[in-house]
Amino acid sequence: MNLNATFIAQIVVFLTFVWFTMKFVWPPIVKALDERASKIADGLAAADKAKNDLALTEKRVGEELRKARESAADVRGGAEKQAAVIVEEARAEAARIVSAAREAAQGEAATAAQRAREELRAEVAALAVAGAERILRREIDAQVHAELLTNLKQELN
């Protein structure tokens, strides 16, 4: 074997191998590498987007929490005001009830006092008539007796 012929044959086989590799083997490998690089880039982009979305969501959650706290504070303040109003209304109603009961008691007391005065006047009139009858030791007729009682009642008023 000749060294030159072997060398040329090896060059031809090598060039054929390079051509075959570039034509049939290299494109699928490059395509697979490109797809892999694309998937990695898409994954990194999705991760960045997810990170941004997470930051926005955390910001929104913080804002919603702040709003909820403010709303809760407003509701609590409104409830406290409403409770104060209800307490004041209850106090006013209690004062009205006490006042009405006091007025009713005073009215009953005044009525009872008036009845007691009238009964006392009637008894005083009866005693006066009895005393006058005993003093005079005579009978008074019914008409004179009624007039005396009426006059006595008017004098006592």
From TrEMBL:
<comment type="function">
    <text>Component of the F(0) channel, it forms part of the peripheral stalk, linking F(1) to F(0). The b'-subunit is a diverged and duplicated form of b found in plants and photosynthetic bacteria.</text>
</comment>
<dbReference type="InterPro" id="IPR002146">
    <property type="entry name" value="ATP_synth_b/b'su_bac/chlpt"/>
</dbReference>
<feature type="transmembrane region" description="Helical">
    <location>
        <begin position="6"/>
        <end position="26"/>
    </location>
</feature>
<comment type="subunit">
    <text>F-type ATPases have 2 components, F(1) - the catalytic core - and F(0) - the membrane proton channel. F(1) has five subunits: alpha(3), beta(3), gamma(1), delta(1), epsilon(1). F(0) has three main subunits: a(1), b(2) and c(10-14). The alpha and beta chains form an alternating ring which encloses part of the gamma chain. F(1) is attached to F(0) by a central stalk formed by the gamma and epsilon chains, while a peripheral stalk is formed by the delta and b chains.</text>
</comment>
<comment type="function">
    <text>F(1)F(0) ATP synthase produces ATP from ADP in the presence of a proton or sodium gradient. F-type ATPases consist of two structural domains, F(1) containing the extramembraneous catalytic core and F(0) containing the membrane proton channel, linked together by a central stalk and a peripheral stalk. During catalysis, ATP synthesis in the catalytic domain of F(1) is coupled via a rotary mechanism of the central stalk subunits to proton translocation.</text>
</comment>
<comment type="subunit">
    <text>F-type ATPases have 2 components, F(1) - the catalytic core - and F(0) - the membrane proton channel. F(1) has five subunits: alpha(3), beta(3), gamma(1), delta(1), epsilon(1). F(0) has four main subunits: a(1), b(2) and c(10-14). The alpha and beta chains form an alternating ring which encloses part of the gamma chain. F(1) is attached to F(0) by a central stalk formed by the gamma and epsilon chains, while a peripheral stalk is formed by the delta and b chains.</text>
</comment>
<comment type="similarity">
    <text>Belongs to the ATPase B chain family.</text>
</comment>
<keyword id="KW-0472">Membrane</keyword>
<keyword id="KW-0138">CF(0)</keyword>
<dbReference type="Pfam" id="PF00430">
    <property type="entry name" value="ATP-synt_B"/>
</dbReference>
<keyword id="KW-1133">Transmembrane helix</keyword>
<protein>
    <recommendedName>
        <fullName>ATP synthase subunit b</fullName>
    </recommendedName>
</protein>
<keyword id="KW-0375">Hydrogen ion transport</keyword>
<keyword id="KW-0812">Transmembrane</keyword>
<dbReference type="InterPro" id="IPR050059">
    <property type="entry name" value="ATP_synthase_B_chain"/>
</dbReference>
<keyword id="KW-0406">Ion transport</keyword>
<dbReference type="InterPro" id="IPR005864">
    <property type="entry name" value="ATP_synth_F0_bsu_bac"/>
</dbReference>
<keyword id="KW-0813">Transport</keyword>
<keyword id="KW-0066">ATP synthesis</keyword>
<keyword id="KW-1003">Cell membrane</keyword>
